[in-house]
Amino acid sequence: MHHHRHHAHLHAMGRHFRRHGFAAHFMGGDGPGRGAFGPGRKLGSGDLQLLILALIEEKPRHGYELIKEIEERSSGFYAPSPGMVYPALTYLEEIGHAEVEAEGTKKLYRITEAGKAHLEANRELVQSMLAQLARAGRRMARVREFFASEEADAAGATDHGAGAELYAIRRAFKAALAEKHDAAPEEQRRVAEILKQALKDIRGQ
Q: Are both 180 and 192 inside the same structural domain?
């Protein structure tokens, strides 16, 4: 029963972070392009158009391929809806930044010379957005690993009768380490020294 309650708790936490916490935490930080994502973890229309141009510059893509590519690059952090992507593609076609090749019932989008010029003029912003997506994806993967590890620990505590106090400390310890993953080098060195001493103390050295 305890394991099921804990599993439900972790699931609720994960849902909360996905809805409310990841955009502010993951898309923050230093460097250009901060704040490209608006409320609800959405790109502004102009930013999304630039991102689409960058992807079809790499190779021609269908609309659904663009959605999948953005989702994969962010490890599931951000997946624009069809209601955002297809109007953006239509607009890019209308202003001459993209052209369409019909493939049966599908449309394959290619970047035009005008689109390349517009993209080049905004290259720094595009690179920043791509970097943000990649960074968010890495952090999303770490959070998934953390929750998976939490569930494994909870199962172990239940199966093997581990002390509740030790389990709680272990959870807090892991959460604190996760928070320090992207800390400044000086802070990471400070944490490393604390861990070294704690390991010695645990082993009675």
A: yes
Mean pLDDT value across residues 78-96: 94
Of residues 26 and 67, more confidently modeled: 67
Residues 52, 117, single domain; the answer is yes
CB crowding 131-149: b at 16 or more within 10 Å, else e:
ebbebbbbbbeebeebbee
In angstroms, how far is the first alpha carbon of the chain from the final one?
Answer: 39
Q: What is the pLDDT of residues 26-54, one digit of tens each?
A: 444 433 344 455 545 567 889 999 999 99
172 and 122 share one domain: no
Tokens describing residue 110: 């290619």
Cα–Cα distance between 159 and 203 in angstroms, integer? Answer: 25
Residue 148: domain span: 2-162
